[in-house]
Amino acid sequence: MSKLFPPPSMVVLTLTITLFSFLLTAAPTTGYRPWPQNPQTKNLTDYAFGTSKKYEGSSEFVKLRYHMGPVLTNIITVHTIWYGNWQRSQKKIIREFINSISAKNSPNPSVSGWWKTVMLYTDQTGSNISNTVQLGSEKNDRFYSHGKTLTRLTIQSVIKSAITAKTKPLPINPRSGLYLLLTSDDVYVQDFCTSACGFHYFTFPSLVGYTLPYAWVGNSAKLCPGMCAYPFAVPEYIPNVKPFKSPNGDVGVDGMISVIGHEIAELASNPLANAWYAGSDPSFPVEIADLCEGIYGTGGGGSYTGQVLDARDGATYNMNGIRRKFLVQWLWSHVLNYCTGPNALDH
């Protein structure tokens, strides 16, 4: 029986429509909020671990698996795009956090100690994620080249503009580069403050020309500090709770630090959405930081941060950087089978 084929013009039209539909529906692999979630949406850990001595996690409920994709085993270079209006002091806090990931001389508990959990993850050859994370080239987008309201696809266009700029373009590094887009407190990004404070994915070659792992994190100081800068700000639906004092004197940026750590850890362990994650759907995976949302110390879970530290000035932190203190959420250890961090009290 002969088979009728559509004319070539119809094939091209069909493929174009299919690709366009995919781009519109494709979502970054994670949308992260530091905690607490709105009480209207209840979290499994609130019920599953309520009587556990290790409220911060349980191997019985977590099936984190390796799906044979690459992880970042070479030196990791973070290329930052500063989108919008950023103060020098704000940039300095974020740069010093990223530089602290590989610092060897920070006092314990340290940011570099926190990264050791990430380094436990390997690829199919047994190679571990790199112990070196360094700052790369940066790009300033002070004039909001794509406006003050960005969609998820527009974010990829911002990255394309940064790597194709006529003056000082960002280097193209698909194998070990991370592209970190940071939006200032007057920029709204799709799903910001409702379901995400940050997310990561990879760029589409059809839009950007390359497959580049990237993350976006927004400054929530003006838009929703109670949602994305918690616990340095508290949402209205939690009465009679006093916010913590931020360690670097900037609630929006100190809130961003934990989200940046969350996304960098997941980009290193799942850069192309086919490496380390739990769940059956790679488009909506549960990754090594998702499993520990809102947990900053021993006993953490629910709306409780866990055992953290107080600085002399009354600020709250759980790890030391090169010259600063930070509050950063814990990560899931597939070796221990629970969430852990350098300030853990039980090991």
Automatic annotation (TrEMBL):
The keyword Signal applies. Residues 1-31 form the signal peptide. Keywords: Apoplast, Secreted, Signal. It comes from the Eukaryota. GO terms for cellular component: apoplast. Pfam families: Phi_1. It is found in: Secreted, Extracellular space, Apoplast. InterPro entries: EXORDIUM-like. Belongs to the EXORDIUM family. PANTHER family: PROTEIN EXORDIUM-LIKE 3, PROTEIN EXORDIUM-LIKE 5. This is Protein EXORDIUM-like 3. The lineage of its organism: Eukaryota, Viridiplantae, Streptophyta, Embryophyta, Tracheophyta.
